[in-house]
UniProtKB/TrEMBL annotation:
Stored InterPro entries: AB_hydrolase_fold, Epox_hydrolase-like, Epoxide_hydro_N, Epoxide_hydrolase
Species assigned in the record: Alosa alosa (allis shad)
Xref: Pfam families: EHN
Gene Ontology terms: biological process: arachidonate metabolic process; epoxide metabolic process; response to toxic substance
Name of the protein: Epoxide hydrolase 1
Localization per record: Endoplasmic reticulum membrane; Microsome membrane
Amino acid sequence: MFVSEALSVYCTSKVYGLYFGNPKRLVTGAKLKDVFGHDQPTFIMISYQNVLQLCWLKILLSPEPVEWSRVQLWRKKCNIKVQGWWARGERSLSEDETIHPFTVEASEDEIQDLYRRIDQTRYTEPLEDGRFHYGFNSVYLRKVVSYWRNQFDWNKQVKVLNKYPHFKTKIEGLDIHFIRVRPQYREGQRVLPLMLVHGWPGSFFEFYKILPLLTETQDGLAFEVICPSIPGYGYSEAPHKQGFNSMDAARVFLKLMERLGFTEFYLQGGDWGSLITTNMAQMKPECVRGLHLNMLAVTRGGLGMLLSLIIGPYLPFLVGFTREDVRRLFPYFEKNVYEILKETGYLHIQATKPDTAGCGVNDSPVGLAAYILEKFSSWTDKQNRDLEDGGLERNYSLDDLLTNVMIYWTTGTIVSSMRFYKENLKSNPEKRIDSRTGIYVPMGFAAFPQELLHCPQAWARWRYKDIRSYTYMSSGGHFAAFEEPKLLADDFVQFVKKVECKKL
């Protein structure tokens, strides 16, 4: 089912007339809370032919001036999926909604096949003094592979993965994998549901260090945490049809939370998780108590962004910049444009021809490890490119890094994970309806200093309309939960406290 020629209309509590496309469902004299059962901003998808009636109703029925700046209309025809089917073939008449326990398993045949492929690896001689400027240095790669072949214990790491309860359930034709971690019951504690969403080239395993920090009671507050695998990543089934993007993932995860019985919950994400959780907050703001992110990319700044880039280095207070914003942003071309160009070659491949490059990394475990681990080097700290070992073991253990690689290798999901870029970037992202829709749920942001892009709070406010916390983190990069779990957990908890205090 689709909604064609759709509009997205933001309704404030000052709007007293709402038109749903059916004259019999005209609501007058009712505030937003009376209509929806809550007073959070809500998006209503209506057909284009009814926009005039809606506008006239706003004018005639509102006893106060209508906030026209709050009304966002798109005349362009668009299709908004309210349902999807990603399994092979036609949609079935019914879907099994049972939630099944799942266990990660290791097989000896799998391990022996891995060893055989590792033993047949053909290495490339690195350039003199190349370090990590050309990608993963093959001298250090030999060391990593030697550890993988001779010391890394996959059976032991599988036990680590099974430390938390795993489940699977069918949603829109796909087996969706997730872990669910409940806090130990303590008298007087308050438990809030939370979904954590990973990105690429990470996995649900990124959150294993932060889970104990979130499920332990702090000031009477603890979280019941749901960590799903994005479809096509790890143990979640990959879509079998074209078109599965972040909005589809968001819809699937909203259905997952509904199936688990949660009507309100918090969201946290970085990388793709940032976009997916943002889409969830746009689709069902009434369900999202708060949205916390550790990566932001604002692309629709327009003239405001241009002016801030011109004025910001000299008079930052005029454009809402802090001294820390200036330090992280400027010189803009060097710290942003040039650095992004150096770090996004992978993106252009995966957003255009993912299957071509995927043939190699899906067949070679060493190629896969180099492809993934290089990101954990340069995205953790760009200065790691100057080091012979890429600084990998400064922030992570080889066991943790290789466990993440093994999740991709044993499931064969590197290609399907790369396709997610193609599906999200095959058309102009700025023309997607989600990029033109504001986010009005309470939002918190942890700005880590080594993140690929820095987004000042002044820019974030263009899209996120209710920022409750914005923190300049002292250290850390792109993989915040993996690298700095304590810092991220503390910032998230402080954000939740601010939201809950205001709600009370």
